[in-house]
């Protein structure tokens, strides 16, 4: 059992390793296929959804789940891998349905939606930095910081969905080309991390945001019709397969919490 001093040094989020980014991309892809499975496949068959309320209903469903798991995560006394990644998946599913609702049902469009969400992400990070003095994930070990952390993640996941749709659907870029674009930006971020002295916290959040549109376009590639450039796979089957892989990775490769730097 950890003593008080040790528990204060350990964050309630995992260490940022290659495994972290692999699971994050899989989780964001699951968020896309899972969110679409509810709003398009399940609710899409109802009359209410046909009138444009499917995205709103889906957002309400996943919003309740998101709030519930975040509260459990904040109440937990230490890092729990499954609880953490369940919360991440909750943020990415609600991000998917929320972005689709703003962009499509409200008619704001990808450009307007992405701009608004980028402002919200930056506002959350700046408020977090002003309130606590740091936006580093190593400090995520108090309820106050956890609230900032999860609100920022929820906005970033929603922004990523809008960005993915914007790039993939603009000028017929396509899902694979969009995936290559976001994959290239992630590689650039990694190079900046290893070969420059830029803020590690800023680069982390840049990479965190970029994994979401990458997952979004990969998810769309899996389940969208062949005529639209996808593989036309079942959203339910794709979501289940992604979930199984995530669970397997968590079980096979145990994760440690991020230690607070001194």
Q: Could you characterize the architecture of this molecule?
A:
A two-stranded antiparallel sheet has the order 1-2. It is mainly α. It has one domain (11-253). It has nine helices and two strands; from the N terminus they run αβααααααααβ. The chain starts with a helix and ends with a strand.
Characteristic key phrases:
globular, two-stranded antiparallel ribbon, mainly alpha
Beta strand %: under 5%
**In terms of quaternary structure, what is this?**
single chain
Strand arrangement, largest sheet?
A: 1-2
Tell me, rounded to a whole number, the average pLDDT. 86
- Please summarize the sheet with the most strands: 2 strands, antiparallel
What is the number of domains?
1
Share in helix: over 70%
In angstroms, what is the radius of gyration? 18 Å
- The N- to C-terminal Cα distance equals 22 Å
> Total helix count?
9
């Amino acid at each position: 059992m950890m003593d008080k001093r040790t528990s204060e040094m350990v964050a309630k989020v995992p260490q940022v390793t290659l495994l972290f980014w692999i699971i994050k991309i899989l989780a964001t892809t699951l968020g896309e296929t899972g969110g679409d499975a509810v709003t398009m496949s399940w609710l899409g068959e109802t009359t209410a959804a046909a009138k444009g309320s499917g995205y709103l209903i889906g957002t309400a469903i996943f919003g309740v789940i998101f709030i519930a798991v975040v509260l459990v995560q904040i109440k937990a006394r230490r890092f729990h891998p499954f609880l953490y990644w369940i919360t991440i998946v909750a943020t990415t599913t609600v991000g998917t349905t929320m972005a689709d609702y703003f962009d499509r049902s409200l008619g704001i469009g990808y450009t307007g939606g992405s701009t608004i969400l980028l402002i919200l992400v930056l506002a959350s990070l700046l408020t977090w930095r002003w309130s606590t003095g740091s936006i580093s994930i190593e400090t995520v070990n108090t309820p106050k910081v956890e609230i900032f952390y999860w609100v920022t993640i929820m906005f970033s996941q929603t922004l990523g969905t809008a960005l993915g749709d914007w790039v993939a659907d603009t000028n017929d870029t396509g899902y694979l080309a969009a995936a290559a674009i976001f994959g290239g930006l992630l590689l650039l971020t990694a190079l900046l991390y290893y070969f420059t002295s830029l803020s590690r916290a800023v680069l982390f959040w840049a990479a965190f945001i970029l994994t979401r549109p990458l997952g979004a376009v990969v998810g769309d590639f899996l389940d969208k019709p062949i005529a639209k450039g996808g593989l036309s796979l079942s959203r339910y089957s794709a979501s289940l397969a992604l979930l199984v892989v995530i669970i397997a990775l968590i079980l096979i490769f145990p994760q440690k919490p991020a230690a607070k730097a001194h």
